[in-house]
Write a structure and sequence with these properties.
The protein has 318 residues and is an alpha+beta fold. It has 7 helices and 12 strands.
Length: 318
């Protein structure tokens, strides 16, 4: 994983689309019947094909979760992505369109009342979608802000019904090397796996993402289902989830398996604890020339700090 380098396409803040236009555009698209049809966005960004869940978007916004900066526009966030299944550069959005998101099933197994496999649209009917404005802090010391749509991870627990012996949630992504060239790299421990504790999953901030910008999730974001825990570094966000296992033993994540001295299980954001190869004290705001101070727990300490009381001997910050 590399430190961010300035690219020619990145725009200064003064040229970014104003926030009110981003969200008004969403309403206009819906009114014109364009969201369900998967129309091309202005600037040629991120067209979606027909999606059976399109009618669920946009979802009502939960105003409990607010940002300290304007949301990024999709033409910025949608073209700068980590998705190693499709390559190690940030510019994989086009390659990621090979991912077929229907049919798509998620297996629930391990320590659950009844193991089962359900398709994504059945799952979407069993939960209540909402929009949340969340920050994302990459371990590479850059950040973005996105209007995600999805449902609290607590609803996923309620759906799966884990047994009392389940201490951790292990999530796994798809494995299709025919369409995902990164998965042909045999030195990586495919498929991508990561996890969290049951307590973290039940926290109100933990979010299962199914959409963004008022429509179903773009493929390069990890469609059709990913996780986002905004107080952790972004490498913990499992994309394109196909399996959720409830287990008694702590799962070892993809990056932890590759570089345990640099990427651990907890990965909570802390500006005072550097990555072994760079500082975490500040972050570059994607698409601007701004470098701002990083905040403990990415600014979400009031929601999550209590989760880690008594765990001071753990490496909570890597």
């Amino acid at each position: 994983m590399n430190v961010i380098h300035r690219r020619g396409w990145e725009i200064p803040e003064r040229e970014a689309t104003p926030e009110e236009l981003v969200f008004n555009r969403r309403a206009l698209m819906k009114g014109a019947g364009l969201i369900g049809a998967g129309a091309m966005l202005p600037g040629g960004a991120l067209a979606q094909g027909a999606d059976p869940s399109a009618g669920l978007y946009p979802a009502p916004r939960n105003e409990r979760y607010r940002l300290d900066r304007p949301p990024h526009t999709e033409d910025v966030t949608g073209k700068y992505n980590n998705f190693y299944e499709f390559g190690s550069t940030k510019f994989i959005w086009d390659a990621a369109q090979k991912l077929q998101t229907r049919p798509w099933t998620i297996k629930f197994d391990g320590l659950v009342e009844k193991p089962r496999e359900v398709d994504i649209d059945t799952l979407l009917k069993a939960v209540k979608l909402e929009e949340r404005l969340y920050r994302l802090r990459c371990v590479e010391a850059w950040s973005m802000t996105i209007p995600w749509t999805g449902f609290p991870m607590k609803q996923l627990l309620d759906f799966a019904k884990p047994l009392s012996g389940a201490k951790y949630v292990r999530m796994e992504t798809f494995l299709e090397p025919k369409i995902a060239p990164g998965q042909r790299q045999t030195w990586f421990p495919w498929p991508f796996v990561d996890g969290c504790t049951i307590e973290e999953a039940a926290n109100e901030l933990a979010f299962m993402v199914t959409g963004a910008y008022g429509k179903p999730l773009a493929k390069q974001f990890g469609a059709p289902l990913r996780v986002h825990m905004p107080w952790k570094y972004g490498f913990k966000a499992v994309k394109s989830i196909t399996r959720v296992s409830f287990v008694a033993e702590r799962p070892k994540g993809f990056w932890e398996a590759l570089q345990p001295a640099e990427y651990g299980f907890w990965a909570n954001v802390n500006p005072a604890v550097d990555h072994p190869r760079w500082s975490q004290a500040t972050e570059e705001v994607l698409g601007t020339r701004d470098r701002i101070p990083t905040v403990l727990f990415n600014g979400y300490g009031e929601f999550v700090a209590d989760l880690y009381k008594g765990l001071e001997k753990e490496k909570l910050w890597m």
